[in-house]
Amino acid sequence: MDNRYPSLEINLKHLRSNIEVVRKKCEEQGICIAGVVKGATGLKEVAECFRDAGVQYIATSRMDQIVSLRKGGMNYPMMLIRVPMMSECSDIAEYVDCSLQSELTVIRAVNMEAKRRSRVHDIILMADLGDLREGFWDKEAFLDCAEYIEKELENIHLLGIGTNVGCYGSVLATNEKLSELVDLSKKVEERIGRKLEIVSGGATSSLMRIWDHDIPDGINQLRVGEGVLFARDLAVYYGYDMSMLHHDVFKLKAEVIEVKVKPTHPVGELAIDAFCRTPHYEDRGMRKRALVAIGRVDFGDLSDIFPKEKGITLVGCSSDHTILDVEDCERELVPGDIVEFDIDYGSLIYLSSTRTVNIRYI
Ligand SMILES: *Cc1c(COP(=O)(O)O)cnc(C)c1O
Known about the structure:
Blueprint lengths: L6 E4 L1 H16 L4 E5 L7 H9 L4 E4 L2 H9 L6 E3 L8 H7 L2 E4 L2 H13 L4 E6 L12 H14 L3 E7 L12 H18 L5 E3 L6 H5 L9 E4 L1 H4 L3 H6 L11 E14 L22 E7 L3 H4 L5 E3 L5 E5 L4 E4 L12 E6 L1 H7 L6 E4 L1
Parallel strand pairs: 1-16, 2-3, 2-9, 3-4, 4-5, 5-6, 6-7, 7-8
Antiparallel strand pairs: 1-10, 10-11, 10-15, 11-14, 12-15, 13-14
Helix pairs in contact: 1-2, 4-5, 6-7
The structure holds pyridoxal-5'-phosphate (PLP).
């Protein structure tokens, strides 16, 4: 076993169980799951776990993750969920089965690239229902675009329509909001004279509708990442019962490099810290603290890691060091000891993508 620290432990058994539980719960209500792997930066083992748990697509916002999964032998339907850059159109036609789209000029370019390869590329046309990130705002323009794709673009198949809420605009995925998408899908179907295969009703935040059994008829896909990787947000912020899911898929471990009793207030004339900020320091007298060999380079923001052990609290950090208060910790920490942390989505995106962290699967 490779014992380099910091290490990120990923429990693939628990992850797989989470995906299967959510997938089955959704399928009972007629919903398929696109498994979103961008939170774990598209790690191969994580993507394989989603595949083995039987998701409809493996989905990510990043083309490089799709390309590297494909080159690593992943032979499974893959979906690009960030509306693409014009410069990605050739890779889309080459590597992606289905993409979310919102600009006709880009869709036309994908059509050309697909044509050159004698392929047909599936797209989901995005409508903005108020969250104000990607998607058509003007619903007439949306319908015109759908009709144009259907009639004029031979190498693009309009697989369905979709929306995203709760990302920029913090809009809730209410039954009313998602019903707007179903209404729009019916208008598209009228225009193009056939049924759409997919109506994609959002991300983890739309799982609330599954848990409450009130997702509108007509929605048949959700794109879920956080809800299976952490299953934390719906429980913490909305009080949903997520107890059937594991909350320990990820565990962070870091090594203690110094343990000393020191003042809690810096000594000397204070100016700025390593990030040119002027923080406030509370004077709590002399306290025992441990320095661990991990920092912002590894996890991003200190508020996204959580010491697991009783009596250990976060004090501060710089790029490569994190200071812990261990005055109330029962364990007599010494250099070489390992301290464990829970993490959240915000730190996982860093921890899973930096060369400085040793990723281990259990
Ligand atoms: C990131 C993303 C998702 C998944 O979001 P979670 O909250 O992690 O489930 C779904 N759809 C789009 C368009 C995204 O960008």
